Amino acid sequence: MEILLLIFPLLSFLLLQFFNKKIRTEFLYALNIFLYVLSFALSLYIFLKILNLNKDLPLLFYTLIKLDNFSIDWSLRFDLLVSSLIVVVIFIGLLLAIYSINLTKNHTINIKTNSYLSFSIFSVLFLISSNNLIQFFLAWYLIILSSYFMSNILGNKFDNSNIFFQNRISDLCFFLSLYFIYIFSNSINFDIIFQSLKIVENNITFFDRTFSSFDIVIFILLFSYLLRCRQFYISNSRYDLLNINTSSYVLILCGLYLPIGFYFILRFLTSTKLGLDYLNILLMLGSFFTFIFSILLIRTYNLKKLIIYIASAQLGILMILIGLTLYSAAVFHFFTSIISLLILCLSFGIISSKLNNEQDIRKMGNLIIKCPSMFLFILIGFISLLGIPYFSGFYSNQLIFFQFSLINQNSYFLIITYCFIYTFFISYIAFKIVLMVFLGQNNCNIHLYNKIEEGSYYLKFILFVLSIFIIFSGWYLSNLFYGNFGENLWRLVLVGDTKFSINHNFDNNEGFFETRYIICYFGMLLAFLNYFIIPKLGNNLRLQNNKLFKYYLKSFTSYNFK
Asked: pTM to 2 decimals?
């Protein structure tokens, strides 16, 4: 029955792609959503089935091809990580299938969007259920093909020779990494590969750091993914995210980019659990990403760039947690943050579409009067992302700080300080966006502003469902991640570690967690000062002639003298 998880999205793609002129559009939409509902129900069933398995390692396989004479055993792999990612990806696909029905009045574009969305979902499911290198390889290039289709729905014809060259390097790194994994393990099967990785002792030393051959290969695999994703940050290319429609953008970001990146890091983590230098590289790389994207967020006013920078910073946080071996906190934070990002993307997509696809938040303002429900949904998304009680993000952030007692004491205060700095940045940026879009001075096109109406009821229903998830899912899922049970479970699933026990007093970190709130509220207060109070003072003629005040306005606010 597990094979139906792949069949339903593929069937949806085929129906929308080849039968759109033979079946009535309304019936085609209904059939597409029905297939997603079946897929989502089946994904929940498989997740609960795996969670309740009476085994040390919750794991099951669905055999596709088995030929004993040729030693071929091709199966789909379903463990707790895979099944949980499947639930998230199909849930995103279901919501976007509903969302994209009336995205534009052009039914041809809507059908194409839904068709490629289904193909993308199929490709991701095919990747994360891989149990051998061949399926892993094929699924990755299906994902690349699907993202290419999604980004060209509206006919983007831009090209960039640098992007083409970087993509070919990414392809080469991906192929070589899989090739060397096969050479070292002499197998394409993941189970045999994971066992082989533990006995290989071929070490290489760089700058007094010791890495196994597999550490280097796995890092090259991760590097190929990061290099492929670089195309999303460059304009005037075939993959320019700023030019695609909202549902395509949300899918590439929340349904492809984040889950696959998380999967790439965790799938072969069992091979590097003893490689502390490799984990340190992940820690430094994640710290670099969060710092760079936090800085970019300060000076960015483009709505889609703001969202993708926030998402990239969240991926950096996940890499930091994995580098610190806080596995249950990393998985929990992934689930809570991706729901928050999903509600932010969809809500801002609705607002942008009502303003003729305007992306500059400086050309918005005072939209709380026209879109009060969107204001509420976006506020809920940001509050959860910031970890304010008692939304889902609160529980994942609490677990992160509680588990900081498990890390090396030499780097304890350095990590705490870095988290405080990031908390300040993200709270400042989040409140800046809310102020400029909803509470600031109205800079919208007056003709468009007067015509703005609240979104349709089914769009509000989607955001309402996501809001319910944001409010209650963290509390409901906390038992799966907290304490000895949660940490032991995810260490067993991710790295096969059966000899771990928590003997630390988590109450010692309560003070740091409360300090985080103070820093978070300080970031909000500073954003309120810079983007609400000070711009009003800018109308004062005496202050306008003050060079220091003018410099402050220019450097730290969006105020422009008229």
From this structure: 0.89
